[in-house]
């Protein structure tokens, strides 16, 4: 007996920006040969937040899966490259550490590298953990290259991401999506009409035009026009764990060499970012308004930037958390309409792509199934909770007590799931693995080490190795990374030769 199918024929995306156009590009690419209409509604009257300029490596996988040429994308978005994030003043003032992509070291005779490094430290060796990270070494030297061109070298497994102009990303993906048949309609949604069962039937624009659909994707930003204002899904506020609730952003002209990493510097009431692109630098201050006024934040940011300021600083309020339901009835929320986690680890675009990947796996027909929806919501919430816990780790392990904000962070309540990870790691450097997690062991090791969280001991099985040979191996590996990194071009030289964007 042939299964009954009641396929979706029309998908309506409400809102553009990065989230809306990633959705349009993803679904447009999937259904380009199918009889499925995709229409995106956005209004030029409603601006986009447009400050998410740092990304993580999964974005490149998304771009490649769409068949987009990476060099073309880099040029169009004025992108530069990113090996990781440099954290300054987070543990103590004057201290810094690096969170790289990729992996640190390699397994030796079946032993986890981190455990062997812990043993070497216990034996009195002094090289830091990041001396074994290709990305950290390349960042320190200001160099970049394409890892696949270093096959057979210690740099072969290096991973990179991009710094990019999010407004230009939206424009690029709009052109790409429209070539696939996605229709863009200009207009502001005035009303949302629902069926008797509560599902969304259509949206009505300020022009009076009614747009019907079988399924709707809400990319309307913080206001959640469909998911919240119409479907009343509610919001889980995580401000107790992540107290920052405002950001001020400003752009500056570039000064000096372009570093291949993001800089995150802790401040008295939060932290500032510096993200260098090809044509300008993005700067911002994420802060808590209990400890800092908007004007104080603006003054702090403007005093800290390098280069001539472009435009006026913008203040953006937010509430950290997630919708209680990110998919409800025939509506999926994406981007800021779905939830918000501060941009400390550049996860916003990743959450859009990952949500879409889950959605495609569970793609519904017109008879939406609650079992599917419940599992989807559980998986998306788990992603948010994983990232939330990782962000909280940066704050709660601080040793700073020089401001009211940092004293709160050092003593605030933390999620039980994070406390379990910290307690387990503190015994012997172990990690509690999850399913399809974003942050792999390298990330946890980097932040634990950078924030001074040390295990009580290493795994005793490391004693099975001859220490003299182990020490020689660790030293050789470290030296090999340093030597091969020196042979690579500078970040700016690489961009100039391979992917220099035209001047805007």
TrEMBL record:
The active site is at 82. 7-chloro-L-tryptophan binds at residue 82. SUPFAM superfamilies: FAD/NAD(P)-binding domain. Coiled coil: none annotated. It comes from the Bacteria. This is Tryptophan halogenase. The keyword Oxidoreductase does not apply. The chain crosses the membrane at residues 12-31. GO terms for molecular function: monooxygenase activity; nucleotide binding. FAD binds at residues 16-19, 189, 336, 349. InterPro entries: FAD/NAD-bd_sf, Flavin-dep_Halogenase_NPB, Flavin_halogenase, Trp_halogen. It comes from Paraglaciecola arctica BSs20135. Keywords: FAD, Flavoprotein, Membrane, Nucleotide-binding, Transmembrane, Transmembrane helix. L-tryptophan binds at residue 345.
């Amino acid at each position: 007996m042939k299964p009954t199918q009641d396929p979706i024929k029309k998908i309506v995306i409400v809102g553009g920006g990065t989230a809306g156009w990633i959705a349009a590009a993803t679904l447009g690419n999937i259904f380009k040969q199918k009889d499925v209409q995709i229409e995106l509604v956005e209004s030029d009257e409603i601006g986009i937040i447009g400050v998410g300029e740092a990304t993580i490596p999964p974005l490149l996988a998304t771009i490649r899966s769409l068949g987009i040429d990476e060099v073309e994308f880099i040029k169009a978005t004025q992108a530069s490259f990113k090996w990781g994030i440099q954290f300054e003043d987070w543990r103590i003032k004057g201290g810094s550490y690096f969170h790289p992509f990729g992996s640190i070291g390699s397994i030796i005779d079946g032993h986890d590298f981190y455990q062997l490094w812990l043993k070497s430290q216990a034996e009195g060796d002094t090289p830091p953990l990041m001396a074994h990270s290709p990305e950290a070494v390349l960042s320190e030297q200001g160099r970049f290259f394409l890892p696949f061109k270093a096959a057979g070298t210690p740099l072969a497994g290096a991973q990179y991401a991009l710094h990019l102009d999010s407004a230009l990303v939206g424009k690029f993906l709009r052109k790409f999506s429209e070539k696939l048949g996605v229709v863009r309609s200009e207009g502001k949604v005035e009303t949302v009409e629902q069926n008797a069962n509560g599902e969304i039937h259509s949206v009505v624009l300020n022009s009076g035009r009614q747009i019907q659909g079988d399924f709707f994707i809400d990319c309307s930003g913080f206001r959640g026009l469909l998911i919240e204002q119409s479907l009343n899904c509610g919001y889980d506020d995580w401000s107790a764990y992540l107290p920052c609730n405002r950001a001020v952003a400003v752009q500056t002209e570039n000064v000096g060499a372009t570093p291949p990493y993001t800089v995150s510097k802790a401040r008295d009431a939060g932290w500032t970012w510096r993200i260098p692109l090809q044509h300008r630098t993005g700067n911002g201050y994420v802060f808590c308004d209990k400890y800092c006024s908007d004007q104080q934040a603006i003054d702090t940011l403007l005093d800290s930037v390098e280069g001539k300021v472009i435009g006026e600083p913008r203040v953006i309020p937010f509430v950290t958390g997630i919708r209680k339901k990110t998919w409800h009835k025939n509506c999926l929320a994406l981007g800021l309409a779905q939830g918000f986690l501060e941009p400390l680890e550049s996860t916003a675009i990743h959450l859009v792509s990952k949500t879409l990947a889950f959605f495609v796996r569970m793609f519904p027909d017109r008879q939406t199934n609650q079992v599917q929806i419940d599992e989807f919501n559980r998986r998306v919430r788990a992603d948010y909770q994983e990232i939330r816990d990782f962000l909280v780790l940066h704050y709660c392990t601080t040793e700073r007590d020089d401001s009211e904000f940092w004293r709160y962070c050092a003593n605030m309540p933390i999620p039980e799931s994070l406390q379990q990870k910290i307690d387990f790691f503190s015994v012997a450097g172990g990690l509690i693995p999850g399913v399809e997690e974003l942050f792999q062991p390298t990330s946890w090791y980097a932040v634990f080490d950078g924030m001074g969280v040390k295990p009580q001991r290493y795994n005793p099985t490391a004693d099975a190795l001859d220490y003299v040979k182990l020490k020689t191996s660790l030293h050789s590996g470290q030296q090999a990374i340093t030597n091969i990194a020196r042979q690579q071009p500078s970040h700016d030289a690489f961009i100039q030769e391979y992917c220099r964007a035209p001047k805007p």
